């Protein structure tokens, strides 16, 4: 806890830089990742991430320094080359895209590891630390590195902002974009370049092995929360920023730790959280709605039951005992009690001293509506779908709970405002 | 029967299109009149979509060219609108109905520009024309097939073009919607637009179209609907007599032959 407050106070200028840098890198990768994901090129992103390793190593061998500009250029070249290879293989041979991606990824990455090993055994004094590109090290993001990688991240964000409309169109409907006269090939080129650049800057914090996670996972998680592209990008950026922040923190607390795996763990937790918690598409939300539906159906069935009992005895507002209700319709006592209590708290029922239950006027109205919909639907099925009268009840049991007032009006109109249902019961 | 028109709005000259070296359209020579509602009819795999895509410059052609208003497509792009087959996009994309219709205005806006008020009005107006204004904020994955089709139509309307190419706008659409759409197309025609529609139902084709193109890998017929839709031509279009063309195409692909002897000429119109 103490370390956290110490970290958060940003009293150390170095901590400030590292944190700011990681947040920027991770957020910009996440933003670019949204388009990568929507273009269904997530796997290509992974291939690019692995393919930048040989570029980094080659740049180091050729230049003999760890100057970030050289490393960046090297990474960019092999990253791009991998995309080109994938496209070439898929368009010129019968090999499918997934196989081509696997092929390119392993060849490039294998070559990269080879070079890395050679460098490490080469005895070059400045080689130490090149392996941080494998699993990332946010803490090494200082000085010159920060400025270089940070500027690339800013360029990424600005480009996305400039081409937002075009990228959106391109991802949704490429052919249509073409017919509108947009330079589709050019835009695709830019978007691919952005993906490569995002990978190149992101590896500093996450490393090549796990880079795809920071590119794609925030976008995938954000998609759960919204149906708007703009909002999705924003949420992805926030998720990315948070994971970058955590990476910096991990680097601060445990300097020996590679940050990549930590960042990926955190992003993954956020993604799983989104999957569970997102209000519309999330798992909890769905469960909640299902529970609501079940309760609603039970409530309406009880009101309907009481209304029908009222019909039979000609008095809607006299009390009924549990036994009386259960005789008419089998509902387990526990569920029945729960429903009755809920309905009382909602003002649809009252409870008598004699432990009987009776409808309030509002309860009667609602029960009456359910009965009406049930009978209307039965009639509709027999008249319009020619289903036998003894087969329609089950179906109506369901439909009575979901018909909207508009549909009700439409059915009434089509049936010519009928008086009775197929079983000769009056439609209230 | 192939009727050529004098001052065609669309002129297709000796067009051959191949996928993977296998020609699917052979030597199409076609001229179409302006200010009319035109149907393209043919069996599955006849190359109807391919013809439209080739005219719109979406796929490379092996030989020949298409001209619109006697110009290259590039010069008149803003006046031509394309309504792709509904299945050609992923409807799970994070966008609203309104967002998609607004895309119809992107071409006029040009690079970097943001939509202005007038663009937004035009998009809403187009949505109203297809009766979808109530759905403006709906996520596009929550639409029925017919509604998706209408959204694509609205997008094309928002583009405010003079020529419209529509690939099966009536596929998966109920009869009420189909009637509404054809009514809309007729109004557009009466306002001087030219609409080319890929269509499947012969029965309604007679009613709908002023001009009909019959296609099955080659051009079988083109002319005023009443003259073209006759027994003989329909048999030619739908009959199985085209197996020779299919087999030759297959052969060209296997032998890796170019569809034309002189490929230099063929690339002329490629982009
Ligand atoms: N991308 C492609 N690659 C290879 N062959 C293709 C491709 N698209 C279409 N074809 C082939 O070209 C021929 C014409 O296809 P096209 O889609 O133009 O037919 P269509 O007339 O639109 O058919 P439908 O009524 O089914 O839409 C078909 O034989 C099809 O198999
Ligand atoms: Mg087609």
Automatic annotation (TrEMBL), chain A:
Family: Belongs to the ABC-3 integral membrane protein family.
Gene3D superfamilies associated with the record: ABC transporter involved in vitamin B12 uptake, BtuC (1.10.3470.10), Winged helix-like DNA-binding domain superfamily/Winged helix DNA-binding domain (1.10.10.10)
Record organism: Adhaeribacter terrigena
Keywords: Cell membrane, Membrane, Transmembrane, Transmembrane helix, Transport
Pfam families registered for this protein in UniProt: ABC-3, Fe_dep_repr_C
SUPFAM superfamilies noted in UniProt: ABC transporter involved in vitamin B12 uptake, BtuC, Iron-dependent repressor protein, dimerization domain, Winged helix' DNA-binding domain
Entry's localization field: Cell membrane
Residues covered by the Iron dependent repressor metal binding and dimerisation domain: 360-428
Transmembrane domains' residue ranges: 17-38, 43-63, 69-89, 101-119, 146-164, 203-222, 229-254, 260-279
InterPro entries, per the entry: ABC_BtuC-like, ABC_TroCD, Fe_dep_repressor, Fe_dep_repressor_sf, Iron_dep_repressor, WH-like_DNA-bd_sf, WH_DNA-bd_sf
Name recorded for this polypeptide: Metal ABC transporter permease
Superkingdom in the source lineage: Bacteria
Record's bilayer topology term: Multi-pass membrane protein
Major subcellular site: membrane
Automatic annotation (TrEMBL), chain B:
Domain of life assignment: Bacteria
CDD domains, A to Z: ABC_Metallic_Cations (cd03235)
Keyword Transport: yes
InterPro entries registered for this protein in UniProt: AAA+_ATPase, ABC_transporter-like_ATP-bd, ABC_transporter-like_CS, Metal_Ion_Import_ABC, P-loop_NTPase
Residue runs in coiled coils: none
GO molecular function: ATP binding
Keyword set includes Membrane: no
This protein's UniProt keywords: ATP-binding, Nucleotide-binding, Transport
UniProt cross-references to PROSITE patterns, sorted A to Z: ABC_TRANSPORTER_1, ABC_TRANSPORTER_2
Domain ABC transporter: 10-242
PANTHER family associated with the record: IRON TRANSPORT SYSTEM ATP-BINDING PROTEIN HI_0361-RELATED (PTHR42734:SF5), METAL TRANSPORT SYSTEM ATP-BINDING PROTEIN TM_0124-RELATED (PTHR42734)
Family under the similarity heading: Belongs to the ABC transporter superfamily.
Protein name: Metal ABC transporter ATP-binding protein
Biological source species: Adhaeribacter terrigena
